[in-house]
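Q: Convert this sequence to structure tokens.
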Amino acid sequence: MKKILLFLTGICLLTSCEDFLDASNKTKKDSSNFPRTENDAMQLLTGVYSIIGRPEPLGSVFFTSELMSDDRLGGGGPDDRSCKAMDQFLKDGDDTFNNSWRAHYFGVFRSNYLIDNLDLVEWETEGLREKVTGEVHFLRAYFYFDLVRLFGEVPLVTKPEPVNIPKTPANELYAQIATDLKTSIELLPNVKFQDIDRANDLGRATKWAAEALMARVFLFYTGYYEKETLPLVNGEEITKDQVNAWLVDCIENSGHDLLPDFRNLWAYSYVKDYKYVMDNNLEWAGDGNMETVFSIKYSALANDWESPHQKSNQICLYSGFREQDYTKTFPFGQGWGMGTVNPKIWEEWDSNDLRRDASILDVRNTDEIAEFDYGGGNQEDNTCFWQKKYTPVNVWTDETKTAVHNFSYELYSMAGTDYMRDNIQDLIIIRFADVLLMAAELGAPNAQQYLDKVRNRVGLPSVPVTLENIKAERRFELAFEGVRYHDLLRWHDEDLITINQTDIVTYNRRGQPNAEKKSIVFRPETGGFLPIPQTQIDLSGGVLTQSPGWVGSEHYLN
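A:
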């Protein structure tokens, strides 16, 4: 009996409610006739990619890990409870992460469907089957790695069928992730960054992205679970030496490299009228530059707010200034004020390191912005420090310099404005600097050279390749890029989350320090993971159980 292609709903394991292909009304395609051609396979693969940007920021690994790290606070306005709950390792409701859970399992299901039906396609183009297979295995690994970092142990489903199963042990989950990435590494072509078909393949997974993600998975699994190797489904294991070989391959053969100037990575360097850009003669390298190993891409052509797929970079939206005169905060634009920066990182950052001022702005510094309204939007957790890497970026609308709009309108000749969907710069998931630092941490043959390369770019002298030096380098090089929190978890440095967030000075709506300082305490009983949505537990009839540390009324935000 033919099966209609369906999304998984609820916990994505029980039943279906959202059609992948509406067989009765639109496409007339189902599993009896789809996929059959290479074009069918590419449509399905594009459908899998479309899910990557779907989790809303407060359910994405990138932004939740930022709010839960020691470098950023919840922020937002009085009604923005979810960001504050995450920041304080509490919950503001039972289903905060339901959309995130569903989105990730949508991605898993779509991956499973394509993998399960690859043999049905009439492959004609040489190497295309291997390329599609490698990409979809990368994507399934990507979705599951996000799930295990968000929720810890989750159900492992590798077939496109609705099932109701309990959580899978961590070693089995990571074995599947590693096996998928190994498949990707072995099948994806050795195409250098400079030779990528930018019209068709920009933003897609590459062999180099798979090698880098494998290293990130290895480091987290072996660190967090205190293991020596990473398991595979067939019972074999991936060793540190193998991961180093893949990292060296990426470093030496991918064509990726560091940009000459760290500051040109970030979209603000596009704005010629920004004093910081003028003073330092900066020029934005643009999306998809040679330092980007893998990123989530967005489109100026389809940023429909009503779509369930996020067409704009809402990490920027959530991080922007609340209700300001944006001609006075130029070039930084409108958003929801979440993720204000902990002053501790500014204080501990060497002022001679150009990355500090390239990554953080102090609203009291009139060289950065002309004027900041402390009461704008009833901003909370205001520390005066904001990150600059992912935030709305404005340009003047004309030469009169009396009004602003997002730089995307100038760059892409867009019509109309909507601050909630204007930000379409890439969200970089893996940067080449991270590849170098992972190789240094794992003790690759040229570990000292790799660490020096990262530091030399920003004018810093060589330091020995010790774990402590690498920890510091990762904190500053990769600040506000969604990696700090999971670095702390895998190093078992969770105590720093509490230490670095004790007695933080915040400011009231008049710009005066609050009498009561802010402190945050990490809850080790959670293991650093988030609560599974209660809806999913209920739908499973109790087969699915709650994550440790999240049962009880005492864990709700007051």
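Confidence is low (pLDDT under 50) at residues 1-27.
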